[in-house]
Write a structure and sequence with these properties.
Elements (H helix, E strand, L loop, with lengths): L11 H10 L4 E2 L8 H11 L5 H12 L1 H8 L6 E6 L7 H10 L4 E7 L2 H14 L4 E2 L2 E2 L2 H8 L6 E6 L9 H13 L6 E7 L4 H7 L6 H16 L9 E8 L4 E8 L3 E5 L4 E5 L4 E8 L3 H10 L2 E8 L5 E8 L6
Parallel strand pairs: 1-12, 2-3, 2-6, 3-4, 3-5, 6-7
Antiparallel strand pairs: 7-14, 8-9, 9-12, 10-11, 13-14
The chain binds N,N-dimethyl-L-histidine.
N,N-dimethyl-L-histidine (AVI) binds next to helix 10 and strand 12.
């Protein structure tokens, strides 16, 4: 592997791919799976019978709509419902219908990295629930968090569905929760989905579907590198591999080279060699227990107010508040 001095690592993508593929063992960040094709493949994953997470969360929002709405609603001033990573808002609509039917005063602020998603959601909501006041924004999580500081005039509820936190290692999850907590006032609520530990086979099946959608989703990293960094990965020489450790609750995705090979990334002026059966670690999907979530919350200055689960106890949505300041 040789990097010429003329090669510029001038974008986070180039820098991260360079660092990941020249490390031992090799890795790539899962956030780069989500280009247009990756977004579509993730939509397909959510429709898979094995990927129980989406249906469990939808069931929770459907079973407990009233209790969740009561938890969210503020005083006569109403509240702001800020959803990070709103996507197509399918699950949230259950809540929005209830809130608007019961004339609860609120503004829905969906935030997503995809402008397409926000435009589409704003359009469908205008058609389906025109009474809801929608004020969408495009942006990355951490950049948007800065802007959340400005929402202080009335109660705010920050909602993060889909167990997206599971794609972060614990220290990063604590960093994320801490940042969210810093934007919250005493009565504000953070409402977040956490996939739970369960039969390891159920978890493995969810990340290893027989139709190969998850494999294509994982391999999209290589497809994207080929396109954007003039790479020549032969996708057929990599295999999607999933492992789940029931002790730590961590599901890990890999791409495994099925034979020794060399790959060239022209844009990075980089040649990478793979031994047969060498791995690229691509994603973690953490599974939780109440104990782990309480530990993460405490380490982030938050406390669990309450939680809601589905009929199988597969998944939980927790409502967090800011920990009481001992000096206050
Ligand atoms: C987005 N995230 C919560 C998904 C998960 O379950 O970790 C991404 C995913 N990876 C494979 N299947 C779904």
């Amino acid at each position: 592997m040789i990097l010429s001095s003329a090669t510029q690592l001038d974008t986070p993508f180039k820098k991260d791919v360079f660092e990941g593929l020249t490390s031992e063992p090799k890795y790539l960040y899962s956030k780069y799976i989500y280009d247009q094709a990756g977004d579509k493949l993730f939509q397909d994953i959510m429709a898979l019978p094995e990927y129980y997470l989406t249906n469990c969360e939808l069931e929770i929002l459907t079973l407990h709509t009233k209790a969740i709405a009561n938890l969210f609603k503020g005083d006569a001033n109403g509240f702001d419902l800020i959803e990070l990573g709103a996507g197509d808002g399918k699950k949230t609509k259950v809540l929005l219908h209830h809130l608007s039917k019961n004339q609860i005063e609120f503004t829905y602020k969906p935030i997503d990295i995809s402008e397409n998603a926000i435009d589409g959601l704003t359009r469908t909501l205008a058609k389906e629930i025109p009474e809801v006041n929608v004020d969408g924004e495009t942006g990355e999580y951490f950049e948007v968090l800065e802007r959340l500081q400005n929402f202080k005039s009335r109660k705010k509820v920050i909602m993060v569905l889909g167990s997206n936190i599971g794609n972060l290692l614990h220290p990063r999850a604590i960093q994320f929760l801490t940042k969210l907590g810093e934007t919250m006032s005493r009565d504000d609520i953070l409402f977040m989905g956490f996939d739970q530990k369960k039969d390891p086979q159920t978890i493995l099946d969810a990340y290893n579907d027989p139709t190969g959608v998850t494999a294509a989703f994982n391999k999209n990293l290589l497809v994207r590198i080929n396109r954007e960094l003039e790479g020549n990965f032969d996708i057929s020489k990599f295999k999607h591999w999933e492992v789940y450790d029931p002790e730590t609750g961590t599901a890990k995705s890999y791409l495994v080279a099925t034979e020794a090979q060399r790959v060239r990334l022209e844009t990075l002026d980089l040649d990478i060699s793979f031994d047969a059966w060498e791995t690229i670690h691509t994603e973690i999907s953490q599974k939780y227990t109440d104990k782990i979530v309480a530990w993460l919350a405490e380490a982030s200055g938050l406390r669990i107010e309450t939680s809601f689960t589905d009929s199988h106890n597969y998944y939980k949505n927790y409502a967090f508040k800011k920990m009481k300041d001992p000096k206050a």
